[in-house]
Write a structure and sequence with these properties.
332 residues, alpha+beta, paralog of FGE (formylglycine-generating enzyme), four-stranded antiparallel beta sheet, four-stranded mixed beta sheet, 7 helices, 12 strands, 23% helix, 11% strand
């Protein structure tokens, strides 16, 4: 049985529980809306490629033959020189919330026993400009033996973020993409800059929550990716469903990434535990009954939930219509 934060409350105070419970509160409504959206979605333009078996039912998942802005020859990754990976320069940044400055913050965003913020030093990494799409996830299913445990994951519009994926699915996708890109790097059939990184030891992974937050808010401690006040034109929130990735461009965002607020919650590689954030102690939590951190908020959420410092969490097997992910390129 899987648990989201609605199945088990945090042992912390009421403000903490608000963060943990807020993600799935509208779960029943969201499921209904997702079902309606899937039923009404137009049929995709399916290619006529060879049938590739999958682990669940032996049939090929339909994928569009072309998708504007994405490279069908590279598993529908963004069609640019780095296949969508955007460099996030290394260095310290302001992580967490100061309730004196952000009245919407929850106490799980405060560091230590005081109402303070931290400044972790995060090495350079790359983060995908967009959330992983249905087309990208379908390419993974067709090219691997990973079972589609919830068929709704591959039934959405191809340029929307994939949903109904568990943390285990997201990790499996990252591992598969790492192997695919690494093989192409060895063959010399990948953009040179990306190939050089892979050949020198960089790898595809989910981001940890410090990486995710730094990419979302930059180094100036802004509350949202674009600044300190909600801006409906920059994010998909208070909405009825997902939108195609990149629909909401954000020229004021620190790194030009799309959908870092809203659209879908995004899995990270970090187990949920109290601040201060320390990557080195993640292994200690993994030996317990860990939940996994999600970031960014979803399409139905209000302004409080889409702030860059907000933290949600869920059981690694949870699959929901408002949970997706994006991938990172990390060193080591």
């Amino acid at each position: 049985m899987t648990r989201t934060t609605s199945d088990r409350a945090s042992p912390r105070d009421d403000a903490s529980r608000a963060t943990w419970w807020a993600v799935p509160v509208a779960g029943g409504v969201l499921v209904a809306l997702s079902w309606i959206a899937l039923v009404l979605a137009p049929e995709p333009n399916v290619d006529a490629g060879p049938v590739l078996p999958t682990a669940d039912n032996g049939s090929r998942v339909p994928v569009t033959s072309t998708l504007a802005g994405f490279h069908s020859g590279f598993s529908y990754l963004p069609d640019d020189a780095m296949l969508g990976f955007v460099e996030i320069p290394g260095g310290a940044f302001v992580m967490g919330s100061d309730p004196g400055r952000d009245s919407l913050s929850f106490n799980v965003e405060w560091w230590g026993n005081g109402r303070v913020q931290g400044q972790p030093d995060v090495p350079t990494f790359f983060l995908s400009r967009y959330e992983v799409t249905v087309a990208q996830y379908a390419a993974f299913v067709n090219g691997s033996d990973h079972a589609v445990l919830d068929p709704q994951a591959v039934e959405g519009s191809p340029d929307h973020p994939v949903t109904w994926v568990a943390w285990t699915d997201a990790v499996a996708y990252a591992d598969w993409l790492d192997q695919e890109l690494r093989a192409r790097a060895d063959q010399g059939t990948i953009p040179n800059a990306l190939g050089d990184l892979l050949r020198s030891g960089w790898r595809v992974s989910l981001p940890d929550e410090a990486q995710w937050e730094k990419a979302a808010r930059g180094t100036d401690g802004r509350i949202y990716p674009w600044g300190d006040t909600p801006e409906p034109e920059y994010a998909n929130y208070r909405a009825r469903g997902t939108t195609p990735v990149g629909t909401f461009t954000c020229p004021r965002c620190a790194h030009g990434l799309s959908d870092m607020s809203g659209n879908v919650w995004e899995w990270t590689v970090s187990p949920y535990q109290p601040y201060p954030f320390t990557e080195s102690d993640d292994g200690e939590t993994l030996r317990t009954d860990a939940l996994w951190v999600m970031r960014g908020g979803g399409f139905s959420d209000a302004e409080q939930m889409i702030r860059s410092a907000n933290r949600g969490g869920a059981d690694p097997g949870a699959r929901r219509p408002f949970i997706g992910f994006r991938v990172a390129l990390v060193s080591g």
